[in-house]
Amino acid sequence: MPQEILIQVTPEIASNESLLRDFVSKNIKIGIADIQQVVILKRSIDARQKAIKINLKLRIYTKGEPFQETKIELPDYPSVANAQEVIVVGAGPAGLFAALQLVELGLKPIVLERGKDVKGRRRDLKAINRDHIVNEDSNYCFGEGGAGTYSDGKLYTRSKKRGDVTRILELLVAFGATPDILVEAHPHIGTNKLPQIIQDIREKIIECGGEVLFDTRVTDILTKDNEIEGVVTHKGEIILANKLILATGHSARDIYELLDRKKIFIEAKPFALGVRAEHPQSLIDKIQYSCDYRGEHLPPAPYSIVKQVGGRGMYSFCMCPGGVIAPCATSPGEVVTNGWSPSKRDQATANSGIVIELKLEDFKPFAKFGALAGMEFQKSIEQKAWHLAGETQKVPAQRMVDFVQNKVSTEIPKTSYVPGTTSVEMGQVFPGFLSQILREGFSEFGKSMKGYLTNDAILHAPESRTSSPVRIPRDGITFEHLQIKGLYPCGEGAGYAGGIISAAIDGEKCALMIAESLHKQ
Predict the structure, then answer these.
(1) Other C-beta atoms within 10 Å of 120: how many?
(2) SS3 letters for 373-437?
(3) Where are the domains of the chain?
(4) Which CATH number fits domain 85-265+470-520: 3.40.309.10, 3.40.50.1390, 3.50.50.60, 1.10.287.3510?
(5) Residue 29: strand, helix, or coil
(6) Do β-strands 487-489 and 337-340 pair in parallel, antiparallel, or remain unpaired?
(7) CATH classification of 3-62, choosing from 1.10.10, 3.90.1310, 3.30.70, 1.10.3470?
(8) In the Cβ-directed half-sphere of 410, how many Cα atoms lie within 13 Å?
(9) Which domain of life is it from (predicted)?
(10) What strands, in cross-sheet order, belong to the sheet with 272-280?
(11) 388-424 pLDDT, tens per residue?
């Protein structure tokens, strides 16, 4: 019977198979020659003490015990070319995993994506970075794979449904992700590797008889007697089906406006908003690892920090070790920041969203917009930042200590944000209460992480697309919209997910609920 053990080892031992075998041999008092295989089940870093350790959960196979390399394979997807059709709006993680689940359940997905495929998106990303041109349908948020494709690929989730999480991770591995994501405490694929995985998922859907249509923006949702009949695209094409998964992501403002215009129930939802802070990665390593140089066996250090300031949570969000800041506007006349890391996390800078919890009462100045009040609040800050920074894709920027001391930075060094920066007193971007909380919060952060509060850190504004400012209400059991039968609000855009894994899980759940509904008919 294989033996499972929990051990703590140095980073050097954890990264060297021979040294690890030797350590295990001494730990369980079995000769090295008698150890057939050491399988790492889980791996995490313990940096609480000066001597950094790696926590490992291992399964040890000794000679004579049956061992077979685990090979993760895709489900046996059936052909669905002639099956009942389900419309899926959006080809982000929620939409793609909903489509895969529909195929597995014998239903035919018709995926409608307003943006381009992963390769076609690259030209539009280049246009944002180099020419400051924003394509409203193809950008860092819209297109095949959604916002996650070109904005990092973090797979960490706080979801307690671990079985579902494992299933999503295994599907990603079967589609080409590194098996390490099944082991790491905070798994990450990387922006450089995600596009091929996304493309392979799309090809599998099509191979099985599903459809994936790019450059196809939904402009109307057809209903009769509060039941879904289909959709209309921007080309005037009508696509009919009585089941619709709406997985458009949290930046599809036109969809929220369409629902509001058609008097389909939506509601304002609190979200978080702030800045994206960039530090030298070497400084974060020094703070987190308590050493001048992290060495070759430790990864670039992440950080996570939460404070209560002025009765609100202020916290790090989407932290990107060895990463860069990207321009994520979805319309001309606004600027938005986000961050990502390549798979090796080998860039010289680290960045993180530093955001503050908002409350519904904060949106009162926009009350005339009803359920869209939070969205209009968000939009107003993005547009103000665009004006202040020079009406291009440059962003307002300020050195961190200067911001805390309410001083305009005389010079902003070159940062990882390619379109460039404009020195601005950040307090002009945000309402007064948010600026004050940010100032106080950074002072508190500096007390917890010695060295974090520094003028070597550059703040970029705004980090505003943390989650949806709108919730599309649905039944907690059937996942169907409370008013429109056959409409399944899904993922981040509907207010039910917060990242790649949780969105994928939500997509699968919506597909399962549709299959269950059809089975009962």
Answers:
(1) 14
(2) HHHHHHHHHHHHHHHHCCCCCCEEEEEHHHHHCCCCCCCCCCCCCCCCEEECCHHHCCCHHHHHH
(3) 3-62, 85-265+470-520, 272-463
(4) 3.50.50.60
(5) coil
(6) unpaired
(7) 3.30.70
(8) 0
(9) Bacteria
(10) 306-309, 312-320, 349-357, 272-280, 458-463, 395-399, 421-423
(11) 999 999 999 999 999 999 999 999 999 999 999 999 9
Taking residues 318-331, what's their average pLDDT?
A: 95
The encoded tokens of residue 99 equal 């489509």
pLDDT, mean of residues 116-129: 94
Q: For residues 260 and 318, what is the distance between their CA atoms, to the nearest angstrom?
A: 30
Distances (CA, A) of 152 to 146, 147, 291: 11, 9, 27
Q: Which residues pair with 89 in a beta bridge?
A: 112, 246
If pLDDT is split at 50, 70 and 90, which confidence band does 377 have?
A: very high
Q: How far apart are CA 156 and CA 151, in angstroms?
A: 14
What is the Cα–Cα distance from 357 to 352, expressed in whole angstroms? 16
SS3 387: helix
Residue 31 reports pLDDT greater than 90? yes
- Residue 55 carries which side chain, given as an amino acid letter? N
Look at strands 272-280 and 349-357 and give their pairing: antiparallel
Nearest-CA neighbor of 9 among 56, 42, 49? Answer: 56
Given a contact cutoff of 8 angstroms between Cβ atoms, the answer to whether 400 and 455 are in contact is: yes
**Arithmetic mean of pLDDT, 285-294:** 90
Per-residue pLDDT tens digits for 209-221: 999 999 999 999 9
Counted residue by residue, the chain has a size of 521
Report the first-to-last Cα separation within the chain, whole angstroms.
48
Q: Quick check: pTM over 0.85?
A: yes
Separation between Cα atoms, residue 58 and residue 199, nearest integer Å? 34
447 Cβ contact list (under 8 Å, min separation 6):
none
How would you classify the pairing of strands 108-112 and 211-213?
parallel
DSSP 364: G
∠ CA(18), CA(24), CA(30), 5° rounding?
110
With CA atoms as reference, report the closest residue to 9 among 58, 60, 81, 72: 58
Nearest to 358 by CA among 337, 380, 340: 380
What burial class does residue 26 get, using C-beta atoms within 10 Å of its C-beta: 0-12 exposed, 13-18 middle, 19+ buried?
Answer: exposed
Q: What is the mean pLDDT of residues 484-488?
A: 98
Q: Give the other-Cβ count within 10 Å of 233's Cβ.
A: 17
Sheet with 244-246, edge to edge strand ranges? 211-213, 108-112, 85-89, 244-246, 487-489
pLDDT at 493 over 90: yes
Q: Which two tokens stand for residue 129?
A: 């970075």
Write the CA distances from 413 to 18, 273, 410, 416, integer angstroms.
45, 24, 10, 10
User: Rounded to whole angstroms, how far apart are CA atoms 84 and 102?
Assistant: 10
Q: Please, what sign has the CA dihedral across residues 412, 413, 416, 417?
A: positive
CA distance 314 to 437: 8
